[in-house]
Design goal:
By secondary structure, this protein is of the alpha+beta class. It has 2 domains: about 220 residues, no CATH class; about 100 residues, no CATH class. It has 11 helices and 9 strands. Strands 1, 2, 3, 4, 5, 6, 7, 8 and 9 form a 9-stranded mixed sheet that branches. α8 crosses α9. It comes from Hyphomonas beringensis.
C-alpha cells in the first residue's frame, strides 16, 4: 500500500466525512456532520473535555478500516493523517450544539393539560450509547446523558390540532434532539443500567419533531434559558500526535506506567459536578469489577485471566522498585482499563 498516495486521494475533507458519517442517522439539511453525535464524534468530545488518554492512532485507523503491512506504514499513516484528525476533533468541540436522531411515539392525549406525553423521552434523564469499538477505542463504551428531559417530554397542543396530528402521523414520529454539555462540564465514568460508560453530561436545548415526510411538526424548547456550549478542551488535550511509546515495555516500566496513566491513578474518572443523579464509582471493589468485566469482554476469559496475572506481577514489581512516595500508586495499577497495548507487551516478553 502506498499510504502517501492513498491519503492524497482521500484528502482532509474526505477523511473527515468518512469518519464522521453514520448511515443509521439521516442527515439534517441545516446541521453540519460534525454536530451529529455518532461513535467517533462522541469519543472525540469525551476525551477532549474529560482528559482521559485516547488511543489516537487506533481512533484514526479503525473507523477507516485501515490495515498496515508493518510498523513503518502505521507510523507514516499516523503522521500524515493526524493534522486532519486533529482538525476534525477541534471542529467537533467547537460546535454550538450537538444533535441525535431517534423515534418517539405520541402517548395518550392529556385533555386536562392539553398535551401529548412523548414515549421515548424518559423522566429525569436519558442517554445515547456509542460503541467504543466503532470509534477505534477500547474499554468502556461512550455515552451522552441528557439531564433535563423533563423540560421536553410533553408536546403541548389544542385538542382539535391533536386529533389532526394523530390522524396524520399514526402515533410514531421522528425526533431530533439538540443538546450542549452542562456548564461547568461534567464528564467521566457514569453507571447507567448496571453498566459504566465514558459519559459527557448534557442539557437538551430543543427537541424537533418531524412527520414521516421530514416535515417539521413542532419544536419543544428547554425551560432553561441561554443554554450554550461552553465546553473547552482540557489543558493537556489527549488528542495529540502519537508518540508510539508503550509504557508497559519501557525500561523502567513501573514509573512509565504511573506517569502515563496518572489520569486514572488520580481518580479523575470520578464525575465532577454530578448533581444530576448520576452514579460514579463508589468503591474500589466496584471499579475493579467494572475493569475486569471490560477485560473479559475485550480479550475473552482465558486471555483475561493471563493478563490479570501478568498485571499483578507488574504491581509487585512497581511496589518493589519505585520511589517510596509513589509506592501507594502502584496498587492502583490493578484497576487500570485493559488495552491491546498492555496485552501486546506481555506477549512480546519471555517467561522471565
Amino acid at each position: 500500500m502506498n499510504l502517501t498516495k492513498h491519503l492524497a486521494r482521500l484528502g482532509t475533507a474526505s477523511l473527515f466525512l468518512a469518519m464522521a458519517a453514520s448511515p443509521a442517522l439521516a442527515e439534517t439539511k441545516d446541521a453540519p456532520a460534525e454536530a451529529r453525535l455518532n461513535p467517533v464524534n462522541a469519543a472525540l468530545l469525551y476525551h477532549q473535555v474529560s482528559g482521559e488518554p485516547a488511543p489516537v492512532t487506533s481512533m484514526m485507523a479503525k473507523p477507516l478500516n485501515m490495515r498496515f503491512d508493518n510498523e513503518f506504514e502505521r507510523r507514516r499513516f499516523a503522521k500524515e493523517a493526524f493534522p486532519a484528525f486533529q482538525k476534525m476533533a477541534k471542529d467537533v468541540l467547537d460546535q454550538p450544539a450537538y444533535y441525535a436522531k431517534f423515534s418517539v411515539r405520541l402517548g395518550d392525549y392529556d385533555f386536562t393539560n392539553e398535551r401529548f406525553p412523548l414515549n421515548g423521552i424518559y423522566s429525569g434523564s436519558m442517554y445515547f450509547h456509542y460503541d467504543a469499538g466503532k470509534a477505534g477505542s477500547e474499554g468502556l463504551d461512550y455515552a451522552v446523558r441528557i439531564v433535563n428531559t423533563d423540560d421536553i417530554k410533553f408536546l403541548d397542543m389544542a385538542p382539535d390540532q391533536a386529533e389532526a396530528l394523530l390522524n396524520k402521523v399514526n402515533g410514531k414520529i421522528s425526533a431530533e434532539m439538540w443538546m450542549v454539555p452542562t456548564s461547568p462540564v461534567s464528564a467521566g465514568w457514569i453507571k447507567m443500567n448496571n453498566d459504566y460508560f465514558r459519559t459527557v453530561q448534557m442539557k437538551a436545548t430543543v427537541l424537533k419533531l418531524f412527520d414521516k415526510n421530514g416535515d417539521l411538526i413542532a419544536e419543544i424548547k428547554s425551560k432553561t434559558p441561554n443554554l450554550k456550549n461552553k465546553a473547552k478542551a482540557v489543558k493537556d488535550n489527549p488528542i495529540r500526535e502519537p508518540e508510539f511509546s508503550n509504557p508497559w515495555t519501557a525500561e523502567d516500566a513501573p514509573t512509565a506506567i504511573l506517569d502515563h496513566y496518572k489520569w486514572y491513578i488520580q481518580g479523575k474518572y470520578k464525575v465532577p459536578n454530578s448533581d444530576y443523579g448520576a452514579d460514579s464509582f463508589q468503591s474500589v471493589m466496584e471499579l475493579g469489577g467494572a475493569v475486569a468485566k471490560g477485560c473479559t469482554a475485550s480479550f475473552g476469559y482465558s486471555e483475561c485471566k493471563r493478563l490479570m496475572t501478568a498485571r499483578r506481577n507488574m504491581v509487585n514489581r512497581c511496589a518493589a522498585t519505585v520511589a517510596k512516595e509513589r509506592k501507594r500508586e502502584c496498587y492502583k495499577i490493578e484497576d487500570l482499563p485493559y488495552t491491546t497495548e498492555e496485552a501486546d507487551s506481555y506477549s512480546n516478553r519471555t517467561s522471565n
